[in-house]
Amino acid sequence: MEDKIMLLRKIQSAIQQIQPLAAKGWPPGQSILRQLGWCEGFVSGCPSDPAPGPLSMGLIATRELDMYGAKPDLALLINDIQDAVNSLH
């Protein structure tokens, strides 16, 4: 239970950080935000939709926020979330 609470906190932190980028119409940010939203529902036990297929937000974050961006910590957080959700899924 404590692990899920920590994971939900990580997801909420990532959502807060990616929302401004998605709100500006940045397609990679919008995709990451959708996947984070699904992860939040899944981990809390209330998924809004069936699984969206394989999660790709970690790859997108690594490419867009680490390699070509200035947010490597956010990319690492998103990858950690993806790994944790995949281990629960």
What is the structure about, briefly put?
With 89 residues, this protein is an all-alpha fold.
Please characterize this protein's 3D structure.
It is a single chain. The longest helix is centred in the first third of the chain and has 22 residues, at 2-23. The protein has 89 residues and is mainly alpha-helical. It is built from 4 helices and no strands.
**Count of extended strands:** 0
Order of helices and strands: HHHH
The secondary structure category is mainly alpha
Q: For the report, how would you describe the main beta sheet?
A: none
Average pLDDT number: 92
Q: Measured on Cα atoms, how large is the radius of gyration?
A: 12 Å
Q: In percent terms, what proportion of residues is strand?
A: under 5%
Indicate the overall shape: globular
Write a concise keyword list for the protein shown above.
single chain; 89 residues
Write the layout of secondary structure elements.
Blueprint: H1 2-23, H2 27-44, H3 57-67, H4 72-88
